[in-house]
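Key result, reporting period 2: structure in, sequence out.
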């Protein structure tokens, strides 16, 4: 299998990798600064032989793929899975999460949380949001997108996740926050930062960290600035400012960066299944997948996914956007397995997802080498960081009724 894939890569290798990455200072002005260690990335001449761009072992056997509610899942080989991706068919790879989808007997019963009916944290939200800047976005995204790709079952995916974890750990240093890698059966771990609360409920704010080239997933260049470097940076900046503002929630609040979203919501399904199995009471999930691009001929809005999400959570997000951002929400349908919010929805927990616009296919750069930092609007991203801050406070500070 590896020989055949190498022949394919020689015939159709995509655009160049980044060169040797220089040292960067990552952190907002006036905040703690730290050095990002040098990271060697493959150049044009060594992409084909670099171990970083070799596929892992995930697809050495068939995978169980589900393409819609009520549609029987099928066992597919890697070629068929690649064909689905290239055809734009969204899917969940449920091979290792069958218990989650079947509601297995080892899983805890469904838990429905109480969400706040009115906004009660205006002073805290506005105080924290006043500390938001766009400076972290570029300082973080330039080295993050310098990885040739962040393909989830490769050394690039593993290394980029480790790099991300180091940045989160540096950002939360000095605060009572735990940061841990959540390991999967594929190479790239998810990253979870947890702020303890007084109750046993948990609020989850999330994005996905991986990137993929549509045509050559493990070999091809996929800088992934918007998909989903933008969401990754959006919630990282929100975490920075809530900690700076002295965040002490009633409910525990976790920030998640999922691995393997592009492989069929692999990482988030693993996490949701584990939380369900452990009887964790998840109050709500707020997911951010792509927050940095919008077409100037369209109205600037926060796209709010209307399907496979929770109605009460969407209503709350709509209120928060109107109160705390300069944008209003506009609902649209995203389809089955659109992003990681669907894993929490499948698990029976409340979930919502904010998107950069109400035009799902507006950014034609994604999954290609053209998905670069210079295509992003940092001021637009800032409104999504405000929304993440608001969700952390309004849901995190609400006590169980």
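The corresponding designed sequence is given below.
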């Amino acid at each position: 299998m590896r020989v055949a894939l190498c022949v394919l890569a020689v015939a159709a290798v995509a655009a160049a990798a980044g060169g040797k990455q220089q040292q960067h200072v990552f952190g907002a002005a006036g905040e703690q600064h730290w050095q990002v260690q040098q990271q060697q990335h493959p150049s044009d001449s060594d992409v084909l032989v670099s171990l970083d761009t070799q596929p892992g072992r995930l697809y050495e056997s068939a995978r169980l793929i589900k393409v819609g509610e009520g549609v029987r899942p099928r066992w597919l080989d890697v070629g068929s899975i690649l064909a689905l991706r290239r055809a734009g068919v969204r899917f969940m790879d449920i091979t290792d999460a069958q218990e989650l989808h079947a509601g297995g007997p080892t899983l805890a019963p469904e838990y429905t949380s109480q969400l706040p009916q009115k906004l009660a944290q205006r002073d805290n939200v506005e105080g924290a949001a006043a500390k938001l800047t766009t400076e972290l976005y570029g300082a973080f995204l330039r080295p993050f997108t310098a990885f040739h790709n962040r393909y989830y079952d490769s050394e690039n995916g593993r290394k980029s996740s480790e790099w991300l974890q180091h940045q989160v750990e540096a950002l939360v240093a000095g605060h009572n926050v735990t940061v841990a890698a959540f390991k999967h059966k594929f190479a790239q771990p998810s990253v979870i930062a947890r702020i303890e609360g007084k109750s046993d409920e948990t609020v989850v704010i999330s994005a996905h960290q991986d990137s993929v080239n549509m045509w050559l997933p493990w070999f091809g260049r996929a800088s992934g600035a918007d998909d989903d470097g933008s969401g990754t940076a959006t919630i990282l900046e929100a975490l920075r400012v809530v900690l700076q503002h002295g965040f002490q929630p009633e409910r525990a609040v976790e920030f998640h960066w999922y691995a393997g979203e592009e492989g069929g919501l692999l990482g988030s399904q693993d996490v949701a299944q584990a939380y369900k199995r452990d009887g964790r009471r998840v109050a709500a999930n707020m997911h951010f997948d792509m927050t940095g691009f919008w077409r100037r001929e369209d109205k600037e809005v926060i796209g709010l996914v209307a399907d496979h999400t929770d109605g009460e959570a969407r209503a709350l997000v709509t209120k928060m956007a109107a109160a705390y951002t300069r944008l209003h929400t506009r609902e649209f349908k995203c389809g089955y397995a659109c992003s990681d919010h669907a894993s929490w929805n499948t698990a029976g927990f409340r979930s919502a997802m904010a998107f950069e616009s109400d035009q799902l296919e507006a950014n034609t750069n994604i999954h290609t080498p053209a998905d670069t930092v210079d295509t992003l609007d940092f001021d637009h991203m800032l409104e999504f960081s405000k929304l993440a801050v608001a969700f952390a406070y309004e849901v995190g500070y609400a006590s169980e009724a």
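The two ends are 55 Å apart (CA to CA). Confidence is low (pLDDT under 50) at residues 1-49. This case is discussed further under Risks and Mitigation.
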